[in-house]
TrEMBL record:
Cofactor(s) named in the record: Mg(2+)
Lineage top rank: taxon: Bacteria
SUPFAM superfamilies documented for this protein: MoeA C-terminal domain-like, MoeA N-terminal region -like, Molybdenum cofactor biosynthesis proteins
Protein name: Molybdopterin molybdenumtransferase
Enzyme class: transferase
Length: 427
């Protein structure tokens, strides 16, 4: 059986000491299969879940030819091209209460939006342009056949897929399912993610802060991002920097989750047992990614009971709080979407904006500065959120976008164009 490391090391451009962001993401995504297992859920519970099988439309939508406007239902051939036409009002068609006669030559019916088009009618004239004089209805010239009408099945056709498998169900899809009269759909099971923070300096909420200690914030940002992705989160708390506790945590996590996310311990410090343990319990590609923040990151699999047993995918994120969020957005987020069965998986869009301040930039690596977007004279502009250290979590809280400085680019001058990724396009 080909090992994970063999697979990765055979890939083009694989350099474990300086992997480019896009390449690292590609390698991860190539390896991950979607989780198996489906369940049937009621339509409202399907929000943000991933559809497991195509939804086939049992009906045409709309189910009947109907009017798109309030107005007058006419036969187009009755209308004169150049002058007004006088027609006779013979009744009314309401939405949900059809006009059950036939419209003959020289006749018209008052019609409401959504009402079934009466027999013989192929055109609706909006009431705003029509004059009514007693029973006579005067239509101006310049109408078009089929105008203001909606044909049966023009939105969805009976027997055809209305929503393809792999689609993450948003409010629009939930509405489509309801419009078909379907009450339950089949969705993939949620991705199970176990997470824990490592580090003896970490202190939990409710405990006084000892000298040199910090409150554990990474578990909270990770919980927030995973919850927004609709994962089943298994929060294993803070695990001390000792091999026995870490091994027990990895074993437990690998037994119950599809993916394990840890933070801290992946750099080169003396207490960073975690790297050694990860390799002992599975197969790990330790990566130095050509990016800032987030340079040290471990990706692999934890399989404590051997490669034949299922185990879980591992994302060993760096400890610095901003590095956690940046590596999550750039790698873990698409990986979870892939595991969840989202298909097709699209890259996060980036768009250009004018940067209003100068920024330093290291050569050869992609930098993710935190930015605030605003408009000036109709143009989108961005400015960085002050201090950009990878421990400054405030820089993430104030930001609404990442300013993505690509590996090949140099420092940014005030007024230069940069690419930005909206954070609400992420999680
Ligand atoms: N000699 C080198 N030192 C460092 C390197 C390097 O390449 N050579 N890389 C730096 C980079 S970049 C990062 S990022 C960090 C990553 O180190 P670790 O993953 O080993 O993380 P720790 O050392 O455990 O922690 C770093 C920093 O983050 C704080 N932290 C950790 N966990 C949490 C948490 N759950 N909540 C809040 N804050 C947390 C921790 O206290 C440290 O301040 O290494 C650099 N060093
Ligand atoms: O991963 Mo680090 O954030 O570059 O300090």
């Amino acid at each position: 059986m080909t090992s994970l490391l063999q697979t990765l090391s055979c890939a083009d451009d694989y350099d474990p000491n300086s992997l480019h962001v896009d390449r690292a993401r590609e390698l991860i995504l190539d390896l991950l299969p979607p989780v198996t297992g489906h369940e049937r859920v009621f339509v409202r519970q399907a929000l943000d879940r991933v559809l497991a099988a195509d939804v086939i439309s049992p009906i045409d939508v709309p189910s009947h030819d109907n009017s798109a406007m309030d107005g007058w239902a006419v036969r187009f051939d009755d209308l004169a091209a150049e002058v007004e036409t006088r027609l006779r009002n013979i009744g009314t068609a309401f939405a949900g209460r059809a006009f059950d006669g036939k419209v003959g030559a020289g006749e018209t019916v008052r019609i409401m939006t959504g009402a079934i088009l009466p027999q013989g009618v192929d055109c609706v004239v909006v009431q705003e342009v029509v004059r009514v004089e007693g029973d006579a209805v005067i239509i101006p010239p310049g109408q078009r056949r089929e105008q203001n009408t909606r044909r049966a099945g023009e939105d969805l056709q009976a027997g055809r897929p209305a929503i393809p498998a792999g689609k993450k169900l948003r409010p629009a899809e939930i509405g489509i399912i309801a419009s078909l009269g379907i009450g339950e759909v089949s969705v993939r099971r949620r991705v199970r993610v176990a997470l824990f923070s490592t580090g003896d300096e970490l202190c939990s909420i409710g405990t006084p802060l000892a000298p040199g200690a910090v409150y554990d914030s990474n578990r909270y940002t990770l919980w927030g991002m995973l919850t927004r992705l609709n994962c089943e989160v298994i929060d294993m708390g803070v695990v001390k920097d000792d091999p026995a506790s870490l091994e027990a945590a990895f074993r437990e996590a690998a037994g119950c989750a599809d993916a394990i996310i840890t933070s801290g311990g992946v750099s080169v410090g003396e207490a960073d047992f975690i790297k050694q343990l990860m390799t002992q319990l599975g197969e790990v590609a330790f990566w130095k990614i050509a990016m800032k923040p987030g340079r040290p990151m471990a990706f692999g699999r934890i399989q404590p009971d051997g490669p034949e047993r299922p185990g879980a995918w591992l994302f060993g994120l760096p400890g610095n709080p901003v590095a956690v969020m940046v590596t999550f957005y750039q790698f873990v987020l698409p990986a979870i979407q892939k595991l969840a069965g989202v298909d097709p998986l699209k890259p996060v869009p980036a768009f250009p904006a004018r940067c209003t301040e100068e920024m330093k930039k290291g050569r050869g690596r992609t930098e993710f500065q935190r930015g605030i977007l605003f408009q000036e004279n109709g143009e989108w502009c961005v400015r960085p959120t002050g201090a950009q250290g990878s421990g400054v979590l405030r820089s993430m809280a104030e930001a609404d976008c990442f300013i993505v400085l690509e590996a090949g680019r140099d420092k940014v001058g005030a007024g230069d164009t940069v690419n930005v990724q909206l954070m609400n396009g992420l999680v």
